[in-house]
Amino acid sequence: MRTFDPSKAAKRVVVLLAVASVLSACGTGPGASSGDGKSLRVQIPSGPLAKRMQEVGRDFEKANPGTKVTFESVDSDSSRGPNVALLSSTATPDIGYLQRSTGVWSALLKKKQLTQIDDVWDDAGLAKKYAKSQSAYYTTNGHHYGVLYEELLVAPIYYNKAAFAKAGIPDPADHQVASVDEFESMVDKLKAAGYAGFGVGGSSPYDLGHTLDALLPTAVSKSDYEAMLTNFKPGSPTKVKYTDPGFVKVLKTIQDWQKKRVYQKGMLGMDTTQAQALFTSGKLATLQGGNYSYAELKAAKPSFDMGWFLLPPLTPGRKTPFNAFNGDTLVVPAKAGNPELAKKFLKFFMTEKYQISVVAGSGSLPVFTSIQPSRLSNLGDLVQEQFELSKSVGQVNIWDSTVPSTLGQAFAVPVLQKLVSGKLTPRQAAEQFQAELEKLQSGKVSGATD
Questions:
Q1: How far apart are CA 22 and CA 10, in angstroms?
Q2: Pairing state of beta strands 284-290 and 196-199?
């Protein structure tokens, strides 16, 4: 587990600036922005989107002669910690990237380090283009401080079709597995055929949380699940607790899979990149991921065809839905050298054109409700299947990125790592979640109303 030590923030900022992956459309890299109104530094997450954004940069430069756009990529781990210091420093890029749910957003808002961009929302018509829940999530005290540019489907499990055939396992019908017993039986057969079983990046700051996210919606009633997304707010009338049987069952299942060796050997010592490499090498039969994983998996050119399915329901007869993550965010830091040019770029980028060519082209889902599935042939075959199935089995807002980070991902993953390593029982872990919930409900912990 890589944790963030605030005392090392300054050192990590230097590292971020020194080794940032600079993908320049025509600019000169970190430090190019100097408040001249022409040079623009844009931070984006590393991965398939980084290459696609070059198209936007080139088009923006053509539409605005004399401008120079430079892209600087930030990895997932850095975006969850050290990036707070960078985005609040005088070395900040003009446009920063963050995940709305990780605590970075709340920390920057609290310190007044984000520029209000109501004019971007108005000019781009975002309130009408987003779903109501997305608009509400990005409205703080009636104002807007960031734009959501993509939606992710979290939960699909990719599998090696050749491994399934060798183990005598048919492709899961309708991408569903009927029960935990059936899933565990599949893994046993795969291991007998010489493969590692269920791939999870246990040392990553989010992957075990995604296992919880996938199991939780079918472990509790729909009304209880909805309550869990909001009951952290002070004055919430719900009596749903994390010590209730459904949540404890999720924790027990996660721990049982370690005891039964369902996960790959050394899971707690592997991050998602290592787990992906084990999968594409053909040694690992299944891999937890999302629609965002597919482009990278294909780029590795595995020697086998891939399929996908969803984790089994914890309540018999229920269909496992997709978890929808709405948190990938672009912001204008308060200390940005060229805030007006940054807002102009955001207006330019947040259009249907780039939602289709850039966002969908990199394997993610566009966020504008006006865009129909028939226009997204560039998603890739498996992601297209996931998007289509999500229309029938449904989507739920992902739990660990909807609740505040003090209860969700930043808190949950370390608890799950202790649970899997045997340092906590499911009941003890549940009590820790409940204690954090009650702190938020008391109103004494920041983030409860964000």
A1: 20
A2: parallel
